[in-house]
Amino acid sequence: MGHDLPVITTARPKPDSATVAAVDAARAALLEEVDAADVGDHLGHVVEGERVVTHLFACTRAGYVGWQWSVTVARASRAKEVTVDEVVLVPGEGAIVAPSWVPYRERIKPGDLSPGDLLPVDDDDPRLVPTYSFGDDPLDADEKAQIRTVAKDLGLGRVRTLSIEGRELAAQRWYDGDGGPDAPIARSAPDSCTTCGFLLRIAGPLSEAFGVCANGDANDDGRVVSFDHGCGAHSEVRLAKKHAPQPRPEHAFDTLTPTDLEEF
Predict the structure, then answer these.
(1) Model's pTM, two decimal places?
(2) Is 135 within the bounds of a domain?
(3) Do the domain assignments include residue 174?
């Protein structure tokens, strides 16, 4: 017969009547720290552990809607009086709190850089790979500095170039952006860029999906566009007859002479 595994249960601490009833003591400790005008009604308590209870009071301080004063009290074994452990201000449900911190490097968007701003790229940025490298082994700082020197001596022009991941990220970003097929102007376009005479072809691995618009009248002039992008400035677009400008009437020639005017 197999042995039954022991069942482990975690018992919740029982409420301690003395600490639960210590509302006045908790409020008194709170009023030693903050003004009475900032303290509202008692909102309840939370049993934190054996003979440890946290009492919650509404915060009425301006600008702290939904926040609560938290006063934790405890009672030693066989002691009659409770002691105050801590007094803190905590957010409750619906409280206005600051959004989660996002590093500046992750918050910056295209167009945020101003003249003179610098945005360094990390040495281990996965979007870039060394133009000249020693192989796939990780490189330390000295080896990276040596790579830069070798690349400069060889006249390669660039120390690093796009990795496959960097190229795919750029392609996806362009395709999902204003130059892709889902842009509002593309969805209502009469035809796609792939048949437009203003599309400039590019070289490289992205040449089969993207080009550059060279139409000075188009919104995307000078920008990368996908072949299935489009706009109303397509080189082959033609207006329907009802939208075509109406022909001007023939010129009227004035044949009146001063003599004719005198007769009137």
Answers:
(1) 0.51
(2) yes
(3) yes
Question: What residues make up the domain containing 72?
Answer: 17-91
Output the pLDDT for position 71.
95
Q: Is the domain of 21 the same as that of 59?
A: yes
Longest dimension (CA), the chain: 136
**For every residue of the chain, which 3-state class applies, written as one string?**
CCCCCCCCCCCCCCCCHHHHCCHHHHHHHHHCCCCHHHEEEEEEEEEEECCEEEEEEEECCCCCCCEEEEEEEECCCCCCCCEEEEEEEEECCCCCCCCCCCCHHHHCCCCCCCCCCCCCCCCCCCCEEECCCCCCCCCCHHHHHHHHHHHHHHCCCCCEEECHHHHHHHHHHHHHCCCCCCCHHHHCCCCCHHHCCCEEECCCCCCCCEEEECCCCCCCCCCEEECCCCCCCCCCCCCCCCCCCCCCCCCCCCCCCHHHHHHC
CA–CA separation, 73 vs 19, rounded Å?
6
Mean pLDDT over residues 71-86, rounded? 90
Span between the terminal Cα atoms of the chain, in Å: 133
Which has the higher per-residue pLDDT, 166 or 255? 166
For the stretch 132-147, pLDDT in tens is 554 444 556 666 666 6
Q: How many domains does the chain have?
A: 3
- Of 115, 116, 117, 92, the closest CA to residue 104 belongs to 117
